[in-house]
Amino acid sequence: LATIYHIDKPDDLQAAVEALRAGGLVAFPTETVYGLGALSTDEEAVRAVFRAKGRPAANPLILHIADPADLDRCAASLPPLAQKLVGRFWPGPLTLVVPKADWVPDVVSGGRATVGVRLPDDDIARRLIRAVGTPLVGPSANKSGRPSPTSVRHVLDDLEADIAGVVDGGTTPLGLESTLLDITATPPRVLRLGAVSTDQLEAVIGPVEVAPQAAPAGKLAHYQTRAKVWRLSGQDRAARALTWLQAAPRPAGLMLADETIAGLGPIPADVFVWNMGSLGRPEMAAHRLFEGLRRLDAAGCAAILTESWPRQGLGQALMNHLDLISQPLEEDAP
Ligand code: TXA
Ligand code: MG
């Protein structure tokens, strides 16, 4: 059974470090989502990460470091704008794709000449990485195709049988993955939209290009809820949600904003509601998204209705996720 480590207890920190050094997998919190940690230098442990997730070997892992200076160790070379990005965004939810240093095993990078590096803004993660003394690989600690985990419970639901343990850090504050920026390209290319917006990046380094396939999980299928997910936008949302509900198979799930829920009136017993917070607070909706998908799925929902947030700030990455997992209601009725 997986151990739950509380690393403010010295014995627990030591036990987690020893598990990693022995080639075990230890999940850890970050400010975005939980990562599935293993020693990046231990090829057997890295292979175990791919196996545990059910992830294709060609889909690369990112390195998690504890101090900005460790970026130099992970990169064969660094373009000048790396320092600007590190100065402004690290620690934080920005992963930099850089030319891979020779010591980084090919299994980590899926055979590529580049590697993603990230310095999490999470004290627990950094203490763990520092104590181990080696960068940890850290894909999201979910089975491939499931929502990224934002709590210990989610990690255990997906991976309990495959891991030595998980370091408890409570609920992850951001709830969406890091932004992935390839700084080997000119202009730099956003490979995944995440918690740092393209506006924030451009304010520091000028124009960036957003790769057409930029998506929370690249080109791979992901976040499969059993239910089909529909998405409302535009006006009169509560009224249109009620119309949708009349025809929706049961149980039905609603993943809606405060403002819309307020207009629904009494909710039937066979309808599950997950409140995403206000339309004015995309950061709240981002924080609640993956938990809501997992809960409505576990409740057996046969159809789910969500809605659109303004595509600004964190709303950009939030909507990028919602675009992938849901269908606009306007174009197709349930
Ligand atoms: O917020 C995050 O980034 C979380 C936390 C745990 O740090 N980690 C995470 O890792 O989301 P993962 O493996 O679930 O997603 C990393 C994404 C994958 O889609 C992978 O294909 C892409 O980054 N990626 C990693 N290295 C890459 C590289 N060298 N070139 C292009 N894409 C890369
Ligand atoms: Mg992932």
List the helices and strands and how they pair.
Layout: E1 3-5, H1 10-21, E2 26-28, E3 35-39, H2 43-53, E4 62-64, H3 70-74, H4 81-89, E5 94-99, H5 106-109, E6 114-118, H6 123-132, E7 136-137, H7 152-159, E8 165-167, E9 179-182, E10 189-192, H8 198-205, E11 209-210, E12 228-232, H9 237-247, E13 252-256, H10 258-262, E14 271-275, H11 282-298, E15 303-307, H12 314-325, E16 326-328
Parallel strand pairs: 1-8, 2-8, 4-6, 5-9, 10-11, 12-15, 12-16, 13-14, 13-15
Antiparallel strand pairs: 2-3, 3-7, 4-7, 5-6, 9-10
Helix pairs in contact: 11-12
Description:
This protein has 334 residues and is an alpha/beta fold. The protein is built from twelve helices and 16 strands. The strands form two sheets. An eleven-stranded mixed β-sheet has the order 1-8-2-3-7-4-6-5-9-10-11, with helices on both faces. A five-stranded parallel β-sheet has the order 14-13-15-12-16, with helices on both faces. Helix 11 runs parallel beside helix 12. Threonylcarbamoyladenylate binds at residues 30, 32-33, 35, 59-62, 93, 95, 97, 109, 112, 114-116, 118, 138-140, 177-178, 180, 191-192, 217-218.
